[in-house]
Amino acid sequence: MKHWNKNINIPNALSVLRILIIIPFVYFFMNMRILEAMACLVISGLSDMFDGMIARRFNQFTELGKMLDPVADKLTQVTVVICLAIQNPILIPLLAIFVIKELLMVIGASYLVFKVKKRPSASKWYGKGATVMFYISIAIIVGLKGIWKIEIIPLSVGLLSVTAIMMLYALYEYYKIFRQLLNSHDPKDSIDLKADLRGESMDTEGAE
Question: Following DSSP, what letter does each residue of 69-98 receive, concatenated?
């Protein structure tokens, strides 16, 4: 009788990769090695896209994966925002919106999991859309400054404003889901974190 942890799969590995790649991104960005920093973002963005595709194609959804995916997104976004704020202080007010939004999302998810034992919502289209817009905006801003030495503040403010609006909309939609989960009595919304993290499945093939 074989046992394996269903959490050990490609989508979860890609989410972990997105977390790990934050370290070289910070190093490259702070040393103004913009091409390498952008390459890290491209890899991060592609892994974000493919982990969902693979999970859907091979039905590799896990509770750990549902938590890892948004955590990887949030850590990446907050890190990029802080790096940009250091390099471009004029953008701090707009960038602060990103940090506040992500902190609220983390607090809400933690409250659901550890306090009321409810399963946080998986990523929705509006959350992914805001993430895609975030990567596009940052790639344009960092690319113009790092490669062509061009800094267009109105363009940067405009891109980040649109992204901020999309993120605030996503936060509002997730808040509605949060309220629904708090009042839900449906067993499928409950979570046993220890059992889910163990993620044991049984393989009867070859059983004696």
Answer: HHHHHHHHHHHHHHHHHHH-GGGHHHHHHH
pTM assigned to the model: 0.69
CA distances from 62 to 123, 182, 195, 200 (A): 13, 21, 11, 11
At 169, is the pLDDT very low, low, confident or very high (cuts 50, 70, 90)? Answer: very high
> Model confidence over 26-85: pLDDT tens digits?
999 889 888 898 899 889 988 888 887 887 787 777 767 777 888 888 888 888 888 888
In order of start, what are the domains of the chain with their CATH numbers?
Answer: 2-196 (1.20.120.1760)
List CB contacts of 140: < 8 A, sequence separation 6 or more: 155, 159
**144/154 Cα distance (integer angstroms):** 13
Q: Which amino acid is present at 34?
A: I
How many helices (H) and strands (E) would you count in the chain? 8, 2
